[in-house]
Amino acid sequence: MDIILTPDAILDIRGGDTKSRPIVQVLDIKSVRKSPVRYQFVVSDSVSTLQAALDVQLNDKVTKGYVREGSVVQLIEYFYKNHKNIFIMNMRTVIPECVKIGDPKPLGEPHLKYQSAPSGCNAFAPTGNISKTSIFDSTVKPACQPPSLNFITRGSLAKNEVPINPISALGSHLGEWTLKARVTAKGGIQYHRLVEGDVKVISFDLLDSSGGEIQVKYVGCAVVNRFYPYVEVGKVYMVSKGSLKQVPKDYNHLKNEWVIILKATSMLEKCEEDCSIPQQQFLFTPISEIKNVENNSILDVIGIVTNVSHPVPVMFKNGTENVKRKLVLNDDTNETVEITLWGKFCDNEGQVLREMFTLE
């Protein structure tokens, strides 16, 4: 699959551009400070290179292997700092690993004309050098080795080797796209009350082999009735011909600014099992660090249940009733956190935990 970097991206950034969200390649990564660790990149547009400094809040992209030497990334938030380097505040991985594209030179040196990448870019999820000794490993790894492919599959949606796009590459710049991903969660049917009447809304989450995640929604009785029985948690699907909608992070539990909206003309096709796609992906936060996290953030936490309460009914001001249950979690940082389970989680998972805790 040929990868095209954004032409003249380095020149444009040095000229003051902060809005174009260019696609560039990371050629070199090094640590330039220890406390806290600060990473410095060399980025390329296939013609020119420039130094770049990474915001420390993005360090896990390097430590967990999502960005490494050779990665093709899209810069989301950035600016040219002190007339020396790019300061990157937000970015996403397009291709985690790829051969060097073009023959880029530092600005001011002679260089070759712009050219696209050769074939052979490896578009797989990071293997990373993640420690196995901690319970805070970030990703559930598949049990088998992934096959060798470059986001190309063969099926009724891909008879002519239609390229499969990584979720991290989705955005307003991308026209037609096709995803291959696993359903990791599926919500129940909800009803949104509009002027013209109640509307059915369903959502499910997708995870692909590069570690990208995105929420998918389908709205309206006809679309819901068509797709809802077909979607199974744990299965792999090809998805195409949906529309992308940008949503605030407060309305999206995944780390993605986009949501896919399926329409009556959208395509959703079940595929054979693909062990290159993890069953689930977690980014565990130690309990001791929860106090430093921004309010309303979505977190993954792992630990030992030390207490489970009985269910308690709750009556809301609008007259509706629900039920909740509290549990206490402890991890290897010797900190505890109280978690509240509502509704079906209280009745199902909460009751199972209560029975297990009582038996112990």
TrEMBL record:
SUPFAM superfamilies: Nucleic acid-binding proteins
Transmembrane segments annotated in the record for this chain: none
GO cellular component, one term: nucleus
InterPro entries: NA-bd_OB-fold, Rep_factor-A_N, REPA_OB_2
Domain Replication protein A OB: 287-346
A Pfam match: REPA_OB_2
Family: Belongs to the replication factor A protein 1 family.
Protein name: Replication protein A OB domain-containing protein
Organism name: Papaver somniferum (Opium poppy)
